[in-house]
Amino acid sequence: MSIRLGDIAPDFEQDSSEGRIRFHEWLGDSWGVLFSHPADFTPVCTTELGFTAKLKDQFAQRNVKAIALSVDPADSHIKWIDDINETQSTAVNFPILADADRKVSELYDLIHPNANDTLTVRSLFVIDPNKKVRLTITYPASTGRNFNEILRVIDSLQLTDEHKVATPANWQDGDEVVIVPSLKDEEEIQRRFPKGYRAVKPYLRLTPQPNR
């Protein structure tokens, strides 16, 4: 099954390094980052999980929970976590799903024959509090994920959910944003964006970022 943006993230119940998890219940009212790994004790993924652990405060500020997945069993995860903590100078503070039966991998279409028909590809999903999938991204095995980009996308999603704006290319938190083209009424524009805007073109109107 292919997961598309706007789909409800499939629910599941699965073991993890922190015990049994019912995914939607575990998410609660939080945003979620679910990201998969080909296997335990893999070098690039070891650095990714360590970096994710270091983002705990950043995720908390955004009401985000992180959860990883690997096809290996939970006891293997726990041994791997010891390596991650040692080599990355951190303490893993989120669960790693144990997907030995490939249940979650199949729900999220994480096993691709073009890559390896027994191991998951390295995909990542951002899921909002309504359990909708808001971002999907798949990396090749040779390239570590850019978690600063994941934070940037979450910032954009949360901002644009709250205000009638979009974020332009290379936007960073605090930069100008784009007023959505569907917003035409000048009184409403003035009310929503009291700092004003500049119209580069009638369809390209930039305004200082509203408060989040």
Automatic annotation (TrEMBL):
Thioredoxin domain: residues covered: 3-159
CDD domains for this protein: PRX_1cys
Family, per entry: Belongs to the peroxiredoxin family. Prx6 subfamily. Belongs to the peroxiredoxin family. AhpC/Prx1 subfamily.
Gene Ontology biological-process annotations: cell redox homeostasis
InterPro entries linked: AhpC/TSA, Peroxiredoxin_AhpC-typ, Peroxiredoxin_C, PRX_1cys, Thioredoxin-like_sf, Thioredoxin_domain
One GO CC term, this protein: cytosol
UniProt cross-references to PANTHER family, sorted A to Z: MCG48959-RELATED, PEROXIREDOXIN-6
UniProt protein name: Peroxiredoxin
EC number(s) recorded for this UniProt protein: 1.11.1.24
Active site: C45
Pfam short name (any one): AhpC-TSA
This protein's UniProt keywords: Antioxidant, Oxidoreductase, Peroxidase, Redox-active center
One function term, GO molecular function aspect: thioredoxin-dependent peroxiredoxin activity
Matches recorded under Gene3D superfamilies: Antioxidant, Horf6, Chain A, domain2, Glutaredoxin
